Hints:
The chain is mainly α. It is about 75% helix and about 0% strand. Keywords: Membrane, Transmembrane, Transmembrane helix.
Amino acid sequence: MKFFKILIMVLAISVALYQQVSEEKNIYIMVIAxxxxxxxxxxxxxxxxxxxxxxxxxxxx
Length: 61
């Protein structure tokens, strides 16, 4: 599942970059591609623990 999300994110950024350099820019496609990328980053970073997570757990005890 993680590989699938990364693949979709790479595809979205590729589309956004392609739209940026093309002659006729479609702003809607660029916005959707960036939104998909940001949503994917949010999903992937949600599983990464915080640096201070251990300290917060010790303080709670």
